[in-house]
Design goal:
Length: 227
């Protein structure tokens, strides 16, 4: 089974989470501090991270940001904060899922399994799309003009779905299914938030590229110039 890292400073919550995950066969490395988690990430291979937000020596969102700049490892944020702005911030920084305390250990295990299932993709050869894009499914990355884009896992799936049907309008429901699967907590606004960050990353990679089109009340499409 997968190797997981749990960054949680509350010992009682940590014991509950570790017990629930290990009972399902996962190997769990528990860290109390942000500094310990950083050292663990350098020392061993991990398949998924569960990060608490508020920590004695920092913020789990900082580690989420750092990881997203280097790795596509699935990240689940764990926090007592329930305000929408905190959830949106975590998603914008690249978290794949967000669970608010208090939570059911069984639900947490189910979410971990769902994230790991979606992260396991069948290797396929890269294929080119119009507009200078190249989709590398085996590497779970998308290149623009030969340069890999710094995409989160959700952004990779969103852009991949749009590129599979250039010019076609994709409803928010279709994009939710493509990028979030059976995550019932995701909403239309979640899609809008990720489209916003995706546009910013594409603009950073190529300032002349404004290819994602909004269709009010309908969804999004991608309009690509000929190669």
């Amino acid at each position: 089974m997968a190797n997981l890292l749990l960054l949680e400073d509350d010992p009682a919550i940590a014991r509950t989470v570790v017990y629930a995950l290990e009972r399902d066969g996962f190997t769990v490395l528990h860290c109390l501090l942000l500094s310990d988690a950083r050292r663990a990430l350098q020392a061993c291979r991990l398949d998924l991270l569960i990060l608490d937000v508020g920590l004695p020596d920092g913020n789990g969102l900082d580690l989420c940001r750092e990881m997203r700049a280097q790795h596509p490892t699935p990240i689940l944020m764990l926090s007592a904060r329930t305000e929408e702005i905190d959830r949106v911030l975590g998603l914008e920084l690249g978290a794949d899922d967000y669970v608010s305390k208090p939570f059911s250990p069984r639900e947490l295990v189910a979410r971990v399994k769902a994230l790991l299932r979606r992260s396991a993709m069948t290797p396929e050869r890269a294929h080119r799309a119009p507009g200078g894009f190249e989709v590398d499914l085996s590497g779970q990355r998308i290149l623009l003009h030969g340069v890999p884009l710094a995409l989160t896992r959700r952004e990779f799936r969103l852009l991949g779905a749009l590129l599979r049907g250039p010019g076609r309008i994709h409803s928010r429901e279709q994009l939710l299914e493509a990028a979030w699967g059976d995550d019932n907590d995701s909403t239309d606004r979640t899609v809008d938030t990720h489209i916003k960050t995706l546009r910013a990353k594409l603009r950073q990679a190529d300032p002349s590229l404004e290819c994602i089109v909004t269709h009010r009340g309908m969804g999004y499409s991608i309009k690509l110039p000929p190669t």
